[in-house]
Design goal:
403 residues; mainly alpha; Glycosyltransferase; 17 helices; 2 strands; 1% strand; globular; Prenyltrans; membrane; repeat
């Protein structure tokens, strides 16, 4: 849900589609050593906090207690004003005007730390910052002050819900996050009926975006990344999205139709290239449909992911594994037997070993003292995000394709 960074970086990322080959991200050189507490081994400049948050949230979801130093690493990424940047190579250096603050990273960190518990001060400060940068239309953009988009607004709603806030009561100028989402919901006529757009185009028109729709369904339902299967939904027809619940039902209908037309998965493509399966956005769609109670299509698409997505996750690392775990959890599927793969074991292998009985935080810190080296940051990073295929992470920031 994912829509972060400064306008300049957002513009760079927006030209990259989910289907771009992921092999572009190089392995770190000795001069680019990354913190040992961090999950994943690729340059974290644009997604360090996001992927760490998803990894910790996924571990908590399946009953795994993350390594204490990994949780502490995430906590130390917070700026003094409560916000999180996409990544701070040296958290001992205070955030300043050049720090690229990120509503999505902040919201993901809130969801992870709220689930883990014991971090109320951190999450309270983060939520206060999110409220301070809410737009007048009730929504949020990826970067503070940016135009509201469906993905950012929805991931913030998930953060608000995680700490017990009522999103409909979080207002700016009399507008709530739901008001912002309803303005981005398409009607029931024409192409993309029932979907959500990422943002209006230059002419103010709305274009259906499947990933934004998955995010919008969750946001309109007031839910975050981790959901339980909802009771089976009734066969609603598309109606004017005057209320969040109706917008969610319309969006779920659009996703169901789109998935059914594409053999159970979503697709994406760069200009001039053929559509390719979009694994991350398909996982997001499974979560959204399960949250709405459209279990039939959610389970069909989950089966497709079991057959096809494990190689993608292995290539793209912790956030990808987390997305598949969220999809499995949402459909009541065992993530430890996901098409024969153990997603939990594979996720755990991308970072520090989880805590085990009898191993204290002090013991962890002693065994890893001196191992965190902050690299020299020179890498532009656009090739990193290419092809990760993670819907909430790069959806709106990176693409506005029509499906």
């Amino acid at each position: 849900m994912n829509v972060r960074r400064s306008a300049a970086v957002l513009a760079a990322v927006a030209v990259i589609g989910a289907a771009t080959p992921a092999a572009a991200a190089p392995s770190p050189s000795p001069s680019q050593a990354f913190p040992s507490a961090l999950y994943g081994d690729k340059d974290p400049k644009f997604d360090g906090v996001w992927r760490q948050s998803l990894a910790l949230l996924a571990q908590d979801t399946v009953g795994v207690k993350p390594a204490a130093k990994s949780v502490e690493w995430l906590v130390r990424q917070q700026c003094a004003d409560g916000s999180f940047a996409s990544y701070r190579p040296d958290p001992t250096t205070a955030c300043d005007a050049k720090t690229m603050l990120d509503t999505n990273a902040t919201s993901a960190a809130v969801q992870a730390l709220a689930a883990l518990g014991g971090h109320d001060a951190v999450t309270d400060e983060a939520v206060s910052w999110l409220k301070s940068v809410q737009n007048k239309d009730g929504g949020w953009g990826y970067a503070p002050g940016g135009a509201s988009d469906t993905n950012s607004t929805s991931v913030v709603i998930g953060a608000l819900a995680a700490v017990g806030e009522k999103p409909e009561q979080v207002e700016k100028g009399g507008k709530s996050p739901y008001d912002a989402l309803l303005k981005l919901a398409l009607g029931c006529d024409g192409d993309g009926a029932g979907a959500f757009a990422f943002q209006p185009d230059k002419k103010g028109e709305l274009a259906a975006n499947a990933d934004a729709t998955a995010a919008g369904v969750l946001g309109a339902l007031g839910q975050g990344m981790v959901v339980k299967p909802a009771p089976a939904a009734k066969g609603e027809t598309c109606e004017k999205p005057g209320k969040p619940e109706q917008a969610a039902a319309n969006g779920a209908g659009f996703l169901t139709k789109t998935l059914a037309e594409d053999d159970g998965h979503l697709t994406s493509a760069l200009a001039g290239s053929d559509p390719q399966p979009d694994f991350g956005n398909t996982a997001d769609a499974v979560v959204a449909l399960a949250a709405h109670g459209d279990t039939g299509q959610a389970e069909k698409s989950l089966r497709w992911l079991e057959k096809n997505a494990t190689a993608w996750a292995a290539q793209n690392g912790p956030a990808a594994y987390a997305q598949l775990i969220f999809a499995a959890h949402a459909t009541g599927t065992d993530p430890r037997d996901f098409g024969g793969a153990d997603l939990v074991k594979q996720l755990n292998a991308t970072g520090p070993d989880p805590q085990t009985a009898g191993k204290t935080q002090a013991a962890e810190e002693k065994s890893d003292s001196g191992s965190d080296v902050f690299g020299v940051w020179w890498y532009v990073g656009v090739c990193l995000v290419a092809g990760v295929g993670i819907g909430f992470l790069f959806s709106g920031r990176r693409k506005k394709q029509q499906l």
